[in-house]
Task: structure prediction
Amino acid sequence: MLEISLFAFFGVIACVTAVMVITRRNPIISALFLVLNFAALAGLYLLLYAQFIAVVQIIVYAGAIMVLFLFVIMLLKPEADKNFFEENPKIKVASLIIGIIVFVQIGITVWNGMTKNPVMQEVNKAMEIGTVEAIGKELYTNYLLPFEAIGFVLLASTIGALILAKKKLD
Amino acid sequence: MIPIEYYLIISAFMFVCGVVGVLTRRNAIIVFMSIELMLNSANLTLVTFSSYLGNIYGQLFVFFVMAVAAAEAAVGLAIIIAIFRNKVTMNLDEINILKW
Result:
């Protein structure tokens, strides 16, 4: 009972804030709703017994990436977009239709697949694999090379961002 | 006991929100945020299947996706700043120098 009410709480927050992110005119308000969305997702991860991913979601997404977004919005001129249907109403109606079609497609696929072969959650196993210990063990043994590679990717992106954001390219 | 469909439907809804955001909005920063929304919905699907099937590799993959998303955000925002220096706009319709 507690589980399902928590799920409904976080799920509703995730859906509502996702809509808010794409409909608000002011980018700062969108960014703050996106932070709320990431927090709700972290709650859903906890309900799925993925503790490590939930913590990383808060630290990396809601912490680091969103701070980066807010700083960039602050540096640039905060210009509000036009109202949702004010300009190019045809494109907007068309993209809404495309969105609905994609949603219905995914929904039909999920419903067909999951009613034919229902998946039951093994709670004990799910609890075991979501811990920091289990994921760390896997990362530092079988996945050591990809782990090092991702470190290199982060280094490269840091240098790339520095060079791109420099005043003069010379 | 929450059926797996519920998580997948939430994930699908967030993905569609991201798609509609990319297609409709013209502010570069909001388009970028919509892309983050889509990445996160994919992450939710991966974690859901990982947890329900008792397989750790889904969560490992989410870890790598997050690292790549961080790199992508840093580079993308740097590109947006560089464009803003040249053209003093964030409207994607006005950034059409690559259009043939």
The domain at 4-87 of chain B is CATH 1.10.287.3510 (Helix Hairpins). The mean pLDDT of chain B is 90. The first helix of chain B runs from residue 4 to 24.
